[in-house]
Amino acid sequence: MGKRKEEKFKENFKKGDPPIVIDLGEKVFIGTIIDKEKNTHIKELKKDEKLIFNIIKERKEIFQCKLSKISGFSKFRISRIVKDLENKGLIKREKKGLTFLIRLRS
Question: Bridge-partner residues for 85, per DSSP?
């Protein structure tokens, strides 16, 4: 296992995800289970969250400042919605200058 993969594995393990070991004879896979259900619970989102999530989903990636222009919501409201979506594990934010680049979590 490479250093980066090992560090990521250790990081995920610290978060509480149990490690999974799959023995395939010659090869052994060590990893974690990803909860894909987080991506399918869109019905549990609030109306505003669903709107923003669908915009992000449609565009694959978008700057946070553009979300405000497209949706008509204030920058503060967009910031709160994006943080909520990130906490639910649906999206990830990457700092780019004075704003964030937002993508769906893969």
Answer: none
3-state secondary structure the chain: CCHHHHHHHHHHHHCCCCEEEEEECCEEEEEECCCHHHHCCHHHCCHHHHHHHHHHHHHCEEEHHHHHHHHCCCHHHHHHHHHHHHHCCCEEEEEECCEEEEEECC
**pLDDT tens digits, residue range 30-80?**
555 555 555 444 457 788 888 898 899 899 899 999 998 999 999 999 999
Looking at the chain, which residues constitute the CATH 1.10.10.10 domain(s)? Answer: 37-104
Does the pTM surpass 0.85? The reply is no
Fold of the domain spanning 37-104:
Arc Repressor Mutant, subunit A (1.10.10)
Q: Are the CB atoms for 92 and 102 separated by under 8 Å?
A: yes
Asked whether 90 and 38 are in contact (CB, 8 A), the reply is yes
